[in-house]
Amino acid sequence: MDTTPQPDAQTDTDTDTDRGVIDLPIPPPGTMGPPQEYDRLRRECPLAKVRLPIDATAWYATRYNDVKHLIADPRFIRPSITDWPPRPGHTPHDEPGLITMMELEGPRHTALRKALCEPFSIRSIRNRLPRIRRTADQLLTPFTHSDQPADLVVRFLEPFPVSVMCDLVGIPYHDSEYFLPQADAALGAILTLQEGREATSRLREYITALLDRKRREPGDDILTRLVRECEHGTLDHDSAITFGLSMLVAGYRTSTMFLADTAHTLLTHPHHYAHLRDHPDLIPTAVEELLRYIPVMNGVVVLQATEDIELHGRTVQAGDALLPVLAAANRDETIFTDPDRLDLHRAHNPHLTFGRGTHNCIGAHLARTQLTMCLQALFDHLPHMRLAEGHTPIWEDDSPSKSPLTLPITW
């Protein structure tokens, strides 16, 4: 059956501008986005060719129906940053790559997901609720007794998900000063390719050494579980390394960015913060709306075609890269009513933030739980939190994935 997404009822124009190569859309400085170009691209050029800052081009898909099909289309693979874009004299797989669970394919991917199903299940994550909430309280209690204004990102929104991830996975939290900068460099490889490749090598060495330590000193954590799976022959060593890289690169940073964007969004619309604080029964619905509304994944998922694919009258050739823009799909006006409005009561919310198909995010339950615990803890400890007057948040404005690096608040 042909699973190629078909053009919808919207009119596809064919102007010279649309058919040329455009610069990668980046959110405006000092904002999380999404980029203003998304609306126009969805209407006029749903499959655009974009120029990336790493001297490469890629196809850019922005409509919901296209993105929904493309992220689960078996005719695409997910290349590592060491294999794409191609380099002169470089043979794919001739060096260790940043292979996370997003790029792993076939039986190895199936075996790894099977090994992780139980620790990432709804039941297992629910059992960890007291530990997760205790982590939030331990960070926020001293925070509320500190001088004002204080930085919510540095003091809470970054260490909270990192601590939760370390506790679950079995990564020593005191190592975070080493692995966090490396993970950021690897995650930003779409902009700084060489730095990302160098960081990848260091992260692989770190995870390899950590797995060796788990063999000698087992714990009650996921890495120890994977070491046992390797010893039983149900998992290979490289797959365990892949999981460790996944958690260091995606498992922590996307969470810290999302929490920072969430706090910034609610604080710049204080009526939303107050309404959610006063109506805690709305939190599950609000969490889904925040997952849709906040554009963390601004075109950083890279797919590579294994065969020629026709879409909207254009040909994605075998070997071409394609970026399905989840953040643009989540603002598609044909799917979501008034999509650019944050609606904490939105009932119909089929957002694509966690992907779909074989590579849907295995940490979705954990991510929802972290956001829920974060909001509940903030409402309890900082019910009257507000942005500090005269103190502007600092943003990293070069990356397509945007969040405030600082968030000065008073309470």
Q: How would you describe this protein?
A:
The chain has 411 residues and is an alpha+beta fold. It has 17 helices and 11 strands. It has helices at residues 16-19, 37-44, 64-70, 106-116, 122-127, 129-144, 152-157, 159-169, 176-187, 193-216, 222-231, 237-251, 253-268, 270-278, 283-293, 326-329, 364-381; strands spanning 21-23, 47-52, 56-61, 76-77, 150-151, 303-305, 309-311, 314-316, 321-324, 386-387, 408-410. Strands 1-2-3-9-6-4 form a 6-stranded mixed β-sheet. It has a 3-stranded antiparallel β-sheet with strand order 5-11-10. It has a two-stranded antiparallel sheet with strand order 7-8. The radius of gyration is 21 Å and the shape is globular. The N and C termini lie far apart (57 Å). The model is unreliable at 1-18 (pLDDT under 50).
